[in-house]
């Protein structure tokens, strides 16, 4: 049992929100520092969650993920294998699925607004998350993502307002890196510069960023925590002193980035002290997950033995569970109000064998529906259901947590779960019936903020509409009157 779990729930809970020295050297601070609302003296907070899974949903011969018809999800035959976890978690009244949408595409010299260039696995996530068209051959985001559009409105005053995590620990192909553009789906504006924000993929780092410096009542341990705090303050002084000397040598763009870095450091200096958190049953520390599981080895395409022997896997089931718990705790303690939870990389090579007994990766499973029959459809749906299960668990935890006014925290939350692709025509291969398609895409939207799901969960068919319109709907529900990038429109039938 961890030290945190031994502390009684009636104890006075205090956090020292610190940051590691290596994080200070980066232009973007990965560690969280937040401002909590004053209990009883502030409006009830709103919360927003953006989540992503790196798979197509597959829709050729069966209804393994998307229900066959429109209507209430509680209706007969509406719960598919892919969304079964929502029924298991009693969330059908608080989640909807919007299907039939598409991201338009065009040749390099004529990419439409909110559209993508033709090559697959690199062109759809950017316009999906930002609403801004991708650029030929460039996988990077071209506009800010919804987490950073929402955060100034619902989390003003937070030094680092977005909790950005990724569950999949590594790419699992080639050099098996733990970074890369396909494992990144968050970007913010820093002045007039678009700045991509790397997620935390280490559960140890994510945990420490929130509650490593929890101050215990024992005087000896409290003194040790104070020592760690003082050390972090000295690291701040050291890093600032060394790097401020660089400012005269930098170009204009780098000066803007570094100045923002210093602004965050100064904010941390002001906040890096013991801060009382809401002394309520909802605000509870989670157990220390310990060290990160080892990174699984890369498995190349066609190496069935590598998957059968559980390569390309780093205990992502545990990692997803821990990250959901951390987001829930951060929301309950009002350390954060916005989260970007990227479950898996685009073109996801995560091994499905430890999870569902399918000795292949998620990417290949999305292709099983191409002539794979019902077994292939079921396998593909299992991969989607894994994401839905953990996303749904986060919503269920918020539903079951009392907010400051006695209502459910889900009543002030909107959440998105989107996927890389759908099913249909692939212009790159000039082929129909392909998982390499941005046609017939589907997005899940959850929560009850702003009247969302006042009429219960629905399956809405949005033929030809852009999937980012669902994101527009989710941010509207938490009071953000803005459209994402080049994509306008909302699904107002989901808001009562």
Question: What can you see in these coordinates?
Answer:
This protein has 496 residues and is of the alpha/beta class. It has a single domain (37-204, 289-494), classed as Alkaline Phosphatase, subunit A (3-Layer(aba) Sandwich). It is built from 13 helices and 14 strands. It has helices spanning 21-24, 84-88, 125-130, 146-154, 203-211, 219-244, 252-271, 304-308, 316-332, 353-356, 362-365, 373-399, 468-477; strands at 14-15, 47-56, 71-72, 95-101, 162-166, 187-190, 193-196, 275-276, 338-342, 413-421, 424-426, 431-434, 441-447, 458-461. The chain has an 8-stranded mixed sheet, with helices on both faces. It has a two-stranded antiparallel ribbon with strand order 1-8. Helix 5 runs parallel beside helix 9, helix 6 (219-244) runs antiparallel to helix 7 and helix 9 packs parallel to helix 12 (373-399). The longest helix is centred in the C-terminal third of the chain and has 27 residues, at 373-399. Mean pLDDT is 83; it is low at 1-41, 212-217 and 271-276.
CATH architecture label: 3-Layer(aba) Sandwich
- Profile the largest sheet: 8 strands, mixed
Low-confidence stretches: 1-41, 212-217, 271-276
> Which descriptor suits the 3D outline?
globular
Distance between the termini: 45 Å
Instruction: Say what the CATH topology is.
Output: Alkaline Phosphatase, subunit A
The helix/strand class is: alpha/beta
Name of the CATH first level: Alpha Beta
- Helix fraction, binned, reads 25-40%
Radius of gyration: 22 Å
Mean pLDDT: 83
SSE string, helices as H and strands as E: EHEEHEHHEEEHHHEHHEHHHEEEEEH
Count the beta strands. 14
* Assembly of the depicted chains: single chain
Strand content: 5-15%
**Helical region count?**
13
Strand order of the largest sheet: 3-14-4-13-10-2-9-5
Query: How many domains in all?
Result: 1
């Amino acid at each position: 049992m961890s030290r945190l779990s031994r502390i009684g729930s009636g104890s006075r809970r205090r956090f020292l929100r610190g940051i590691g020295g290596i994080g200070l050297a980066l232009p973007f601070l990965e560690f969280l520092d937040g401002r909590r609302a004053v209990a009883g003296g502030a409006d009830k907070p709103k919360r927003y969650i953006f989540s992503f899974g790196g798979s197509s949903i597959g829709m050729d011969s069966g209804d393994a993920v998307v229900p066959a018809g429109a209507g209430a999800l509680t209706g007969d035959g509406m719960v598919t294998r892919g969304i079964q976890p929502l029924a298991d978690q009693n969330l059908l009244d608080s989640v909807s699925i919007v299907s039939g949408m598409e991201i338009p595409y065009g040749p390099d010299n004529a990419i439409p607004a909110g559209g993508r260039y033709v090559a697959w696995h690199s062109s759809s996530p950017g316009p999906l998350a930002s609403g801004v068209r991708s650029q030929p051959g460039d996988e990077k985001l071209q506009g800010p993502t919804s987490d950073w559009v929402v955060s100034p409105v619902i989390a003003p005053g937070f030094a680092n307002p977005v909790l950005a995590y990724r569950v999949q620990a590594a790419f699992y192909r080639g050099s098996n890196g733990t970074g890369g553009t396909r494992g990144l789906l968050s970007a913010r504006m820093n002045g007039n510069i678009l700045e991509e924000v790397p997620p935390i993929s280490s559960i140890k780092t994510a945990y420490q960023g929130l509650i490593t410096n929890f101050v215990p009542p024992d005087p000896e341990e409290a003194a040790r925590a104070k020592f760690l705090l003082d050390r972090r303050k000295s690291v701040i002084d050291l890093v600032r002193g060394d790097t401020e000397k660089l400012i005269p040598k930098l170009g204009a763009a780098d000066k803007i980035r570094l100045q923002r870095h210093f602004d965050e450091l100064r904010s941390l200096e002001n906040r890096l002290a013991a801060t009382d958190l809401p002394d309520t049953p909802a605000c509870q520390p989670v157990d220390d997950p310990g060290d990160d599981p080892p990174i699984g080895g890369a498995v190349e395409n066609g190496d069935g033995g590598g998957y059968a022997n559980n390569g390309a896997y780093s205990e992502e089931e545990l990692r997803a569970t821990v990250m959901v718990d951390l987001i829930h705790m951060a929301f309950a303690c009002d350390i954060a109000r916005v989260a970007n939870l990227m479950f898996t990389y685009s073109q996801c090579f995560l091994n499905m064998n430890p999870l569902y007994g399918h000795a292949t990766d998620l990417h290949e499973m999305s292709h099983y529906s191409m002539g794979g029959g019902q077994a292939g459809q079921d396998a593909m749906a299992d991969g989607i259901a894994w994401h839905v299960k953990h996303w749904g668990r986060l919503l269920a935890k918020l539903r079951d947590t009392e907010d400051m006014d006695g209502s459910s925290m889900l009543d002030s939350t909107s959440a998105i779960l989107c996927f890389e692709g759908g099913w249909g025509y692939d212009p790159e291969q000039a082929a129909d019936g392909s998982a390499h398609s941005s046609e017939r895409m589907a997005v899940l939207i959850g929560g009850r903020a702003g009247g969302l799901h006042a009429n219960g969960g629905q399956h809405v068919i949005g033929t030809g509409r852009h999937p980012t319109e669902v994101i527009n709907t989710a941010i509207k529900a938490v009071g953000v009157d803005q459209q994402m990038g080049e994509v306008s429109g909302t699904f107002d039938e989901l808001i009562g």
